[in-house]
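Weekend entry, working from home. Most of the wet-lab plans are on hold until the incubator is repaired, so I used the time to fold the two sequences that have been sitting in the queue since the last round of cloning. Logging both here for the record. First:
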Amino acid sequence: MRLRSLTVILISLLIACLSWVFTPPAVALTQIKLFDLSYQDCPPELAQGAVTSGGSAAAANCFIVTGKAENGTYKTVYDADIFGRIYDANNDSVMQNRTRLGSIAEVPPGISDFELRISVPANQPLPLKLKQFKAAGFSGQVRK
């Protein structure tokens, strides 16, 4: 019985030591700064049939949000989720209860351009106000 307990303890210690030595590289969340934001109407081929996600087939306007993404690391960031708030001319939220707006597949080190397609209910007055935009992604590919 004592030999069995000693064997279990030794194997547990061996596994613990090996897990410290052979750990996979950490895939940490990297913050991406988004700036120089603007928007324009979608090209006609993208705008056709645009509807909002409100469950009904409510008409919507299609826009492309463009800007710059700054990756301050030396590694490419993958699957960066874009977060932000969009308001109409009356300061009403365009995306109710939703701050994740989309994603950027890859953000190389340095400054790069990005674009994001959004649909806005047709009854919300323009111009749109783009606020608190940022992104966060991973230094290694997570989704395949």
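Second, folded right after the first finished:
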Amino acid sequence: MITGIELIKACSAIGAGLAMIAGIGPGIGQGYAAGKGAEAVGRQPEAQGDVTRTMLLGAAVAETTGIYGLIVAMILLFANPFI
């Protein structure tokens, strides 16, 4: 028989796994941004500094989504508020 605590732990593990799916979006977004940044520098090499700066800022903002997913997963696995 499954107790309530075991059920909460199992559901938390599933939830942590689902939270890590949030890492897919930033990976796709950063790859797309890097490709477009390289394309822009190829077309206008004199604008390399501006393009690179903007691309890195966008990558940093996109990465926060993956970090939030990781934090949620860690909380569910190690500091579970439901137990």
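Plan for Monday: verify the second prediction. Residues 19-78 form a domain with the F1FO ATP Synthase fold (CATH 1.20.20.10).
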